[in-house]
Design goal:
Elements (H helix, E strand, L loop, with lengths): L1 E5 L23 E2 H4 L3 E5 L8 E6 L5 E2 L1 E5 L2 H9 L13 E8 L7 E10 L5 E11 L10
Parallel strand pairs: 2-9
Antiparallel strand pairs: 1-3, 3-7, 4-5, 4-8, 6-7, 8-9
Length: 145
C-alpha cells in the first residue's frame, strides 16, 4: 500500500514539482492552517469492493475510509515531474483501488503516527503507518520590537 496526505498545497501548480524531491508534496509537514482540508489517501494495490480500509491517529477512534475511483496523486506528481521526457501517449489513468478520508479537523500541532489497517477480500490484515507532522501557521511567529 502507499499512504499519502493530500492538501490544497499538494494540488498546486505542477511548476512546483521541479523544486521538490519525489513524494515531498504528498506527505508532511502540513501547516495547521492546511490540515483541515487535507485528506489521507491510501492506494491498496489490488484492493477491491470487499476491501475495507481505516486509519487511526494516536489513541483516537479508527476512521473508516471510502473507496473512490480517481487518479493516484503520487502517479500524477511523477508524470508532471517527468512531462518533458515521457511519451505523449503515456497518461495517468484512474485507479479503482484508492481509499480517501479527511484528516480530523482538530489535529494538534506536533508529530503524529497515522496507522492504516486494511482487511482484504480474503480477510487478511495488512498494516502500515505514516508519520505526519503538523506545523504552526504559514504566517509564522509574530515578532514584536
Amino acid at each position: 500500500m502507499r499512504i499519502m496526505i493530500e492538501s490544497g498545497f499538494h494540488g498546486a501548480d505542477k511548476e512546483l514539482y521541479r523544486d521538490f524531491r519525489v513524494g515531498a508534496l504528498l506527505g508532511s509537514p502540513i501547516t495547521h492552517d492546511a490540515a483541515f482540508s487535507a485528506r489521507v489517501i491510501v492506494n491498496f494495490f489490488d484492493g477491491g469492493p470487499r476491501t475495507t480500509v481505516e486509519y487511526q491517529i494516536g489513541k483516537r477512534d479508527p476512521i473508516k475510509m471510502q473507496r473512490e475511483e480517481r487518479l493516484d496523486p503520487f502517479v500524477q506528481e511523477e508524470f508532471a515531474r517527468n512531462e518533458a521526457t515521457k511519451k505523449p501517449w503515456v497518461k495517468a489513468v484512474s485507479s479503482s483501488h484508492i481509499w480517501t478520508e479527511r484528516l480530523p479537523t482538530d489535529l494538534e500541532v506536533g508529530t503524529h503516527c497515522l496507522r492504516v489497517r486494511v482487511v482484504d477480500e480474503y480477510g487478511n490484515d495488512h498494516l502500515d503507518h505514516l508519520v505526519i507532522e503538523v506545523t504552526g501557521s504559514e504566517k509564522g511567529p509574530t515578532v514584536r520590537g
